[in-house]
Amino acid sequence: MSNRAVLEVIALDEQDAVAAQTGGADRLELVTDMAADGLTPSGAGFAAIRAAVDIPLRVMLRLTDGFSAGGPEGVDALVTRAADLREAGADEFVLGFLTPDGEPDLVAVERLIAVLDGCRWTFHRAIDRAADRDGLRKGLADLPGLDTYLTAGSATGVDDGLATLKAEAARAGEPGYEARILVGGGLRLDHLPELRAAGLDAFHIGGAARPEGWTAPVSADAVRTWREAVDAPLGS
């Protein structure tokens, strides 16, 4: 991947993936069942998308709606799915689980990253529901492979999270703040100038890539519009 700002697009199938790559996406987040806010795709689904495009793919590890890993049985199921996806060739992932108290579920996360065996991964928007964002970041800081946080800065979206996103960007490189911030969750084009001026350089879109809604495929033209906006010189 080049040094330009990262544009990641949610893909549900090969058609989405091809359109997103055509529009200029740098990376895809692979999920299924957006009615449950994005769950783990099958190994066959991953393989079909991997054969269709040549950009990096991050695969969601999440079997139920919400941010619970589902207890010991749920974690066992996630570990099995992760192992199957690794066997199918997946080498980048997205995951994140909280306890009922809003603390990071380190048992679930550590079991999964043991299976991932050094693969790069994103801790997703569970951070926006955490009881203590700073504590979560510091608690996860030394876990192998963690290189990204997908966050809106707030559980209610980027509109309410702008101040948090900018404050965290200003702490880049501090303990717990080494991972890249990938901004997503209610992200709009008009947010980009302020975010980019604050040094944020990675952006995640789902519905914004589908002007006709989630029942329609990704639009290459919509992705291209985002690509051009992300790449535009500051102040233009």
TrEMBL record:
This is Copper homeostasis protein cutC homolog. Belongs to the CutC family. It comes from Streptomyces bikiniensis. InterPro entries: CutC-like, CutC-like_dom_sf. It comes from the Bacteria. SUPFAM superfamilies: CutC-like. Pfam families: CutC.
